[in-house]
Amino acid sequence: MGWLRDWFASLNAASAMTAPAPRASVATGDPVILTTPAEIEEALRRGNSTASGQSVTPDSAMRTAAVYACVRLICGATSTMPRQLKRRVDARTREDASDHSLWEILNRRPNVWQKPSQFVQMMQAHVLLRGNGYAKITRGVRGEVLALTPLNPDRVHTTQRDDLRKQHEWTRKDGSRFVFDQDEVMHLFGLTLDGITGVTPIRYARETIGLALAMEQHGGATFRNGAQVSGALKLPQGQTLGDEQRERLKGDMDDFRQGGSREGKVILLEDGLDYVRMALTAEDAQWIEGRKFSRSDIAMFFGVPPHMIGDTDKSTSWGTGIEAQTQGFVTFTLEPHLAMWEEAYNGDCLDAQRDRGIYVRLNRNALVRGDIKARWEAYVKAMQWGAMSPNEVRELEDQNPRDGGDIYYPPPNMTAPTGGNDDVVA
C-alpha cells in the first residue's frame, strides 16, 4: 500500500496557497480555520461558551453521558450493518458483485490503517458531532477506488462553484491548503440548510449540553465537599472565637463534610454554637430531576428514544415490546443515516457509466439477528408464501445450500399453477 504514502508525499511536495492564520481547537488541539464572516462573527461574539458558562465543543460534549450514549448507539448500529455490493442483472435479478474493487474497500480495508467498522464509526461520529464527514478518494489508473482516507472536518471548507459543483478546501496542520474537486472526496452529511454542508446537533443543542455539563460539575463539587452544602455556625450574642479556635473549628467542619460516609452522623458543637443551614441541598434544588430533563432533551436532538440511553421513567410512544421499539429506532433514527451512507457510496465512489448496474446496499435485516425467534418466524412465513426458498434462508444464515433446496412452496389456500414451472411444489 505504498501508493498512499506516495500520495501524502506528493502533497508535501506540491505547491500550496497561503492559508489564513489557524486557531487551536479546544477539542483536539488541531487548527480550526475561520473562513466565512459568519464563523468569524460567532467566534468573536461568544466562541463556544453558553449561558451556563460552559464551553461546549465536540470533545467536551462527549463527556456528557447522554451525548456519548447517543453517538455510541448510532455509530455502533451503523458500523455493524452489513455492506453489500450488488450488481443489477435485469429488472428482477440481482447478484453479489464481490469481484468489484469497491468490495474490498467496504469489507476489507478502506485505507492502510483502519478496518471497515472503525472507519464507519469514525466518519459517523464526525457527522453527528461536526455535521460533516469527509474522506479523500484515492483512485487507480482506471478510476477504481483504492482507498478512502478520512479528513478532519474541522480543517475542510466546502464551497459551491459557479458551475454548481462542490469543491473542498483542505487545510493541513502546517497551514497549507489543497483544493479537491467534488469527485475526489466522499462527503457525508445529513440535515442541511444550504444543500452544501450539514448541520450538527452540537451547535443547536449547545445550551442544553452546557447545562448538562454544569450540572455534572455541580454534582461533583457537592459530593467532593459533602452531601450537605455549606452552612453557618452561630455563637450566642456577645461571644467571639479566637484565631486558634476559629481555625480548629473550621478544620473540624471541613473534615466532617468531606466524604459521603459521614453523611447522617452527628457533630459536636462547643461553647453554645448553633448550626444554621445557608443553602439548599442538591435534592432540594431538584438536581436529579434537572439532570433527567437535560438527558431527555439531548436524546431528542439526536433523534434517539430516551429509553435507549437509560431514561426509562416514561414509557416510549414507539410501541410496546422490544421488537416495536427496535423497529422505531431503525425507522426514525437509523434510516436517514443509512440512506446517507448508501447515497455517498453510490454517488461519490461509483461512476455512473463505468459502474452501471452496481450499487451499495446496507442490509437492515442484520438488526434482528439477535432475536432468533422473530428471525425464524419471518423465515417460516417467507417460505410458506413462496417468497423465499430454503436455500435462500440458509444463505442468510451463512450456511451452505442443500440439495433440492431451490424450491418455492405455493402459498397456502392457493391453487397451484399448472405447467411450465418445475420449481413449484404442488
Give a topology summary.
Elements: H1 2-13, E1 23-24, E2 31-32, H2 37-45, H3 58-61, H4 65-79, E3 83-88, E4 94-96, H5 101-107, H6 116-130, E5 133-139, E6 145-151, E7 156-160, E8 166-171, E9 177-181, E10 185-188, H7 201-204, H8 206-225, E11 231-234, H9 243-257, E12 274-277, H10 287-302, H11 322-349, E13 358-362, H12 372-384, H13 390-396
Antiparallel strand pairs: 1-2, 3-4, 3-13, 5-6, 5-10, 7-8, 8-9, 11-12
Helix pairs in contact: 4-6, 4-10, 8-10
Short description:
This protein has helices at 2-13, 37-45, 58-61, 65-79, 101-107, 116-130, 201-204, 206-225, 243-257, 287-302, 322-349, 372-384, 390-396; strands spanning 23-24, 31-32, 83-88, 94-96, 133-139, 145-151, 156-160, 166-171, 177-181, 185-188, 231-234, 274-277, 358-362. With 426 residues, the chain is of the alpha+beta class. It folds into three domains: 1-228 and 281-368, no CATH class; 230-278; 372-426, no CATH class.
